[in-house]
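Have a think about this chain, tokens included, and walk me through the fold.
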Amino acid sequence: MIPSLLLVAAVSLAVEQMPMHVVPLPVNSTRLLGMSMDDDGFIWVGTFHRDAYRYDPRTGSVEVFHVPFEMKTVSQCLCAGSKVYMLGQTHPRLVIYDRASAKFSEAAYPSAKPNVWYGTDLIDDHTLFFFDRGSAGAIRWDTRTDTGTPIPFPYGTPLPSSGQFVAADGAVWCRLWGGTGFQYKPVGIVRLDVADGKFTGMWEFPKDDAGLEPFTVPATTIFLPFTLKGKIVPFDFKSKRWCRFLDVPRFGELFGFIGGPTPHDGRLFFSLSTYNGTDTGCDGKPFHFCNAMLEFDPSTRRFEFPTLAVEGAYHQVAYMLSAGGAFYATGCNIRESDGTLNRDRSGEFVFLQSRPLKAAK
């Protein structure tokens, strides 16, 4: 652990329709990755290198935890009780930090060739699910024993790479993507029953929405991004039907790519990028994440674009979190002094949060 980094300053900023507080962080990284909140209210954040950050959204302070193993990336942190699980993509073992003992350890995946980028938050008092795009498909992880059980994937499609737990259905709905590189061609969605620990069905992604009816019940609908087509595709998990696509405004102008979503307070928040399937973004420049998010309200079917507009800066906003009743996102300033945007630029991070910092006593 590296000593705490002190908060530089905190300012309040209204980002269009969602008032947010912007907290500058003295963090040296190109982009922060998946995050999770522990039982004490700290947020643990992954990075493109062998560090994890622990952020206190009450004070704005940051601590850096250096992983003592040869992993390249902490793609996501997942908190469960006193432990923080750090997913390392192709790193062959799961990295675990015990907050009580302040010690790191590793545990073997039950997978011949693990490639674990993402997982679910804690589903009950001891269960996580990991998405293994390398060989296992999905892994049920018991946090009491720190052992995993592979879940055989029965479909002849690409393996799940991400998904979301739907408590109302008792299932993890996993996403299937095809194509080489970062083409993000949607293949389908599969249901993973939490109680049985088995995949129970696969629904092929529709080529278009001809003949599909609009979604009717937001509470029983999953909303998936048609990543490179500027659309949101609803799937009613109760009736097991795809629904008419939703066209997102400003596609091809503001953004070319949609990622997510992160549900919060009845709305859905998606990340946006200028990526359009090539190295050149929709704006004719090297692609990058936008300084805006897509906000979608299923009850009103309205789209908004909360934007972090800071003079002299341009913050890539990518990863988001809803935890403890608040919304969080991270952003990295990629604007150089000459005004150009450099997506690989390090430093000048901010945390966006719907709750203000607590006043110092």
